[in-house]
Design a protein that fits this description.
The chain is of the alpha/beta class. 23% of the residues lie in helices and 36% in strands.
Length: 149
């Protein structure tokens, strides 16, 4: 199964990585929006939400139902599509965990920002395939220093 590539606006990506770095050593989370046209998922905006995970936020994140509802309403008001969720992995690679898989929704892209004490290490995006496993999505515009390949 192949997915549409992601083209992430520089400002939206910077907002995600800045959020991840500011939240370090905890995980951060948020949403991103845009549209799908011309064979690409165009990410034009990202918004932060509060990590509502009770307990150790260094290893987990949670997004409240209220925040999901507000994200859907925001997308509708702005004429955008809610494309997915981003979160950070402090001191870990940008590879989905078992927890990430357990809470993932079909259609959404999941951008993961790997962050170290020095800043962002790398950024990758994932989507559920037909077997409900994560498959990596290609990000077409991103600084080469944040790529893993």
């Amino acid at each position: 199964m192949s997915f549409l590539p992601l083209d992430i606006d520089h400002k939206a990506l910077k907002a995600m990585t800045d959020h991840a770095e500011a939240a370090f050593p905890n995980e951060c989370c948020g949403f991103f929006y845009g549209d799908e046209s011309g064979g690409i998922r165009q990410v034009t905006l990202s918004t932060q939400v509060t990590n509502s995970k009770e307990g150790d936020q260094r290893r987990r994140f949670a997004i409240s139902d209220k925040d999901y509802l507000q994200a859907e309403r925001h997308a509708a008001r702005e004429g955008l599509t809610l494309l997915g969720v981003y979160h950070s992995h402090p001191l870990h690679p940008a590879i989905p965990s078992e927890h990430d898989l357990a809470v993932a929704l079909p259609f959404f892209s999941y951008i993961i920002v790997s962050v170290e004490p020095e800043g962002t290490s790398h950024v990758r995006s994932w989507q559920l395939d037909a077997d409900r496993q994560f498959a990596e999505e290609h990000i077409v515009s991103m600084p080469t220093t944040w790529r893993t390949t």
